[in-house]
Amino acid sequence: MTDTTTSAGARPSKKRSGAGIVHLLLEGRAFFALIAIIITFSILSPNYATVSNFLIMANHVAIFGLLAIGMMLVILNGGIDLSVGSVLGLTGVFAGFLMQGIEIESAGVILYPPVWAVVVLTLAVGAFVGFCNGVLVAFFKVPAFVATLGSLYVARGVALLMTNGLTYNNLGGDASFGNTGFDWLGFNRFAGVPVGVIVLAVVAIAAGLLLSRTAFGRWLYSSGGNERAAELSGVPVKYVQIAVYMLSGVCAAIAGLVLSSQLTSAGPTAGTTYELTAIAAVVVGGASLMGGRGTVRGTLLGAFVIGFLSDGLVIIGVSSYWQTVFTGAVIVLAVMLNSIQYGGKGKRG
């Protein structure tokens, strides 16, 4: 009788243990996937697992990581921002336009704004696009998908109109006016680390502190989990919605500056389909598309998973067509795992 009782009592313990392992694997899937990618490509190519290559790949990931952090804030709110790729292109072009010099025909002079002014104005453009998206969603109740899809086309169209479909190739500025260009942002290193990676780290830390140490972070999680309950609790839901879209626009503008600096040029088609990569990074990182669930750490891991996978496929010589297939498969798998993890739970209350 004693043996039977002990055996029966042990079964729930084993079940709980198994469930705990599954939960751990689901929660840490982005980290485990990243480790698996590094190990696999290190075996396939001796040039993959080197410090210099990791820094180069991290510099590539910086673009997607910046977009993904902004996208994560919007997704936490239960929304989506399809315009970030176009905002990246628009802000890059806008910065390039300013760097070319502003000609005043009546005075016969060309003004070269200093770099800090170009950066501030470019970030303001990104924030403005985000503000428009937020107002459409919060006050006019336009579905986020539709509002940001419209912004995607408007931003891309404005970028094409500004350049007439051409690319700004000279972003050197004029040193005599204190405008030394953006080379330092794309090519300089601090303690051996690319500046783009440092920018990503600073933005990630700021976003993490915003979510974990401020009232805004609590408002964001609560309004994304249950908007109606948050509103009844006194959370300024509309303010939060506008703010997250503005922050997403600013992150896209920062990415636009970094990318333009890395390419030493600014084109109106830059960032095409990058919004899909940003969404994929957020999903791979474990965020729920229903809102209310997600972390900066997970989003960064998701960006590194996609970036390291893409670069690894390039290094071992896989066709670009197969790269698209593998990336798509990773995204589908991540969404499926999200459904398993959050299935039946709905939004966080």
Brief descriptors of the model:
4 strands; mainly alpha; two-stranded antiparallel sheet; two-stranded antiparallel ribbon; 349 residues; 14 helices
What shape does the CA trace take? globular
Cα-atom Rg, whole angstroms? 23 Å
Low-confidence stretches: 4-10
Through-space gap between termini: 45 Å
The class by helix and strand makeup works out as mainly alpha
What is the count of helical runs? 14
Order of helices and strands: HHHHEEHHHEEHHHHHHH
Strand order of the largest sheet: 1-2
Main beta sheet: strand number and arrangement? 2 strands, antiparallel
Overall pLDDT confidence? 87
Percent helix, as a range, is: over 70%
Describe this structure in words.
There is one protein chain. The protein is mostly helical and 349 residues long. Helices cover 72% and strands 3% of the residues. The protein has a two-stranded antiparallel ribbon. It has a two-stranded antiparallel ribbon with strand order 3-4. Strand 3 (189-190) and strand 4 (193-194) form a beta hairpin. Helix 3 packs parallel to helix 8, helix 4 (84-99) runs antiparallel to helix 5 and helix 13 packs antiparallel against helix 14. Mean pLDDT is 87; it is low at 4-10.
Please provide a brief summary of the model.
With 349 residues, this protein is mainly α. It has 14 helices and 4 strands. A hairpin with a 4-residue loop joins β1 and β2.
Topology record:
Layout: H1 2-27, H2 29-44, H3 51-76, H4 84-99, E1 102-104, E2 109-111, H5 115-138, H6 144-163, H7 183-187, E3 189-190, E4 193-194, H8 195-213, H9 215-225, H10 227-232, H11 237-263, H12 274-284, H13 296-315, H14 320-342
Antiparallel strand pairs: 1-2, 3-4
